[in-house]
Amino acid sequence: MRFVLRILKALALLLVLLVITAASWLFIRPPELLSVGDGYAAKIVCSNVFIAGRGAEDVLHDDVQAPGNPLLRLVRVSVDRDNDRVTARFMGLFAPSYALYRGAFGCASVPDGNFEAAANAAPFDPPAKMQANDALWPEGEGTGNPADGKIAALLADAGVAGPAMRAIVVVRNGRIVAEAYGPGFSAKTPLIGWSMTKTVNAALLGRLMLDGKISFDDDNLLAQWKNDARARIKVSDLLGMESGLAFNEDYGDVADVTRMLYLDPDMVSLPANAPMEAAPGQRFRYSSGTAVLLSRIWMDRVGNAQAAFSYPHDALFSPLGMTSAVFELDARGTFAGSSYLYATAHDWARFGQFLLQDGVWNGQRLLPEGFVGAMRTPTAASNGRYTQGQAWLAPGGPSAAFGLPEDTFWLTGHDGQSMAIVPSANLVVVRLGLTPIRLDYQPQTLLKAILAAVPQSGEPKQQAGSQQKAQPQP
Questions:
Q1: 3-state class of 27 per DSSP?
Q2: Closest Cα to residue 445, out of 429, 426, 463?
Q3: Residue 410 backbone dihedrals phi, psi, to 5 degrees
Q4: Tens digits of per-residue pLDDT, 284-340?
């Protein structure tokens, strides 16, 4: 009996030592996967609390834990409203990661905990906040006449709207004809676009093209590329996701994309130092790193730092009346052009209508002729799926396979964000939600149903000066 007790005591001691050793390891050198998870949790909670006004625990449960890796269910967050910070820790103890709210520039992941550097990277003179009004959309937030009954009925069908839909806005002939919102969300809730941000970021670059400060054919884009093969990469190569730079966009583990977003305070660093794996123009590789590089490039071309920080507001959001738009900066002061634009569904629809109108708004051309055409022109390297302007022609399959008009093009984003633009039907459909790819929802289902419900007769009515023109290639 004493022998058995000694064995049990020894085993208990061994177990205690193992627990202490494991805890010490997690505390001193946590696995990168835990740091990525905590970084993701801190950033998503921060943006939704401070931008969208949602509750921290609701965001942690609904946005971070429910659809994600099971390990995320062990993450705990705390919100420090006095210092505008969010901290996330695995099991409330390990692998701490942080996010910092910086007003007009939203939240930034601060994986190194250097809040002073992150605060100083954001300008002290942000653009003035625009105020919404009650005029009829898109001039204001009013929607006028009652919604189209047929389309409203479609949006109420969960099978058409898709799981965990948060907002749908349907714009026909330049006016909102129907909209729907999930529980807890409304027309006033700013929602993340994830990779739909890439197309907005591309439009900012297009604004600079209109001013002659950059072109599709520009190369020698970064100083550190000056003396190697990357100097041959052109703006057009980056826009078409065919730069030849290596980048791993796998979200299932610690990959280039998650490392860039949640482990590096300077998001430019990883893609800027990526090696070449193919000659420019020869291989399609979807890359969030590419979009961040485009952010850095257009910011450098604006002229000075303060003007660059104000540029999204001054060049795009203010002219379009996107009063809710918050384009977030990373911890070192580069716009996160791959992922982090928050806006209401009404404002996302404004951007879609802007593209439908060929980059013209209220009679003023804001994008050069041919730029939206590039967004609708497939690249050869992507086998016709992706376009020359950070947009999609065939996400999940060609339009014809779904019975959709051939001129349909798309903005899409992580977890079910989508915007369909159909020039021939004068139609924009924005759908935002939290719908992971494993649920196999395809927004083409929604678009097809709406197209079947809208009247097909009559000439489309567009804003003055918005008529489509033949598009030259970049």
A1: helix
A2: 429
A3: -135, 150
A4: 999 999 999 999 999 999 989 999 999 999 999 999 999 999 999 999 999 999 999
Exposed/middle/buried for residue 108 (C-beta within 10 Å: 0-12, 13-18, 19+): buried
Q: How far apart are CA 244 and CA 227, in angstroms?
A: 16
Q: Which residues contact 63 (CB under 8 A, 6 or more apart)?
A: 44, 45, 48, 434
Give the 3-state secondary structure of residue 405.
coil
Q: How far is CA 187 from the centre of its chain?
A: 19
Q: Alpha-carbon distance 328 to 272, whole Å?
A: 20
Token pair 């006449």 in the structure block, residue = 145
Say which residue the tokens 């209220």 belong to. 362
Cα separation values, 384 from 37, 98, 284, 377, 393, Å: 34, 40, 10, 8, 7
| Cross-strand partners of 365 | 360
For the segment 227-275, what is each residue's pLDDT rounded down to a tens digit? Answer: 899 999 999 999 999 999 999 998 767 999 999 999 999 999 999 999 9
Pure H helices in 333-463 = 345-356, 371-375, 444-453
Beta strands in 175-311 (DSSP E): 175-181, 191-192
Rounded-to-integer distance, Cα 223 and Cα 220, Å? 7
CA distance 248 to 289: 9
Q: What's the CA gap between 293 and 214, in Å, rounded?
A: 14
Q: Which pLDDT tens digit goes with each residue over 130-180?
A: 888 999 999 999 988 767 889 999 999 999 999 999 999 999 999 999 999
Instruction: Round to whole Å and give the CA distance between 51 and 337.
Output: 18
d(CA 102, CA 116): 12
pLDDT of residue 458: 39
pLDDT of residue 471: 37
Q: What angle do CA 217, 221, 223 make, to 5 degrees?
A: 155
Q: Which residues contact 60 (CB under 8 A, 6 or more apart)?
A: 41, 45, 75, 77
Angle at 267 between CA 264 and CA 268, to 5 degrees: 130
Model confidence at 12: pLDDT above 70 = no
Please provide the DSSP assignment of 56-90 as one string.
Answer: HHHHIIIIIITTS-GGGGGEEEEEETTTTEEEEEE
> In this structure, are residues 167 and 185 in contact, taking their beta carbons and an 8 Å threshold?
yes
Cα–Cα distance measured from residue 431 to residue 425, given in angstroms and rounded to the nearest whole number:
18
